[in-house]
Amino acid sequence: MKTYVIARSGVFPDFSAKVGSFPEDEAHKVQISEFLKESSAHRPRTEVALVYTDDGLWGKFKVNDRYVRCVHTTFQDPVYQDACVEFFVQPAGAQSYFNFEFNACGTLLASHVLNPEKDKNGLPREFIPLTVKDLEDIKVRGSLPAPVVEEITEAVTWTLEFFISFDLLARYISDMKRPAYGDVWRGNFYKCAENNSHPHWAAWAPVDAFDFHLPRCFGELVFA
Questions:
Q1: Assigned domain for 171 exists
Q2: Are 115 and 129 in contact (CB under 8 A)?
Q3: 18 is a domain residue
Q4: Using one digit for the tens of pLDDT, what is the confidence trace for 118-130?
Q5: Number of domains into which the chain is organized
Q6: Model pTM?
Q7: How many Å apart are CA 164 and CA 67, to the nearest integer?
Q8: Do the strands 3-8 and 28-31 form a parallel or antiparallel pair, or are they unpaired?
Q9: Does residue 126 belong to any structural domain of this protein?
């Protein structure tokens, strides 16, 4: 099982500034490089880093990409069809987990998944979509202006920065405890794009099926 060590940061996340303040030097960076066999030959180099603060989880994706489209601009749109990065997280002791999916422009799709088995439409059998009110506890910064309708075929580097408060997670998992040193959560990081000329799907912790909603394949997230 893969393990990711989440460093603790004393830096305050400031999403009001034009330039992100993510503490690059404090974070452990890893590659999302386990590409599914269904992918095209395009294998974008995707790096992710995560830290935690007193208030929540703060992450940053950096993608060296091509063939980029981002047409979804509204919260809960199917952003996995666009140039997309994803963070799935399962707090310690929880049977459920959360999926946070972001396109390169910063549009978010997110839910609390109670049963990941797929229904006839290919969706988790039981999940609760996060609400507009929940967005008060989530910050997102995508580096590309929205929308990107015409596919960018040349090389382009884009970033996605996010912050998710522990209060938000505890709203859905009532007995959740804020993480302390040595605590172990579980989760995975993903990169995908479906509706472009070179579709692809990749994970940090490898998955054993054509499906990202596989908590059995999550890696360990260790709080340092």
A1: yes
A2: no
A3: no
A4: 998 888 999 999 9
A5: 1
A6: 0.97
A7: 29
A8: unpaired
A9: yes
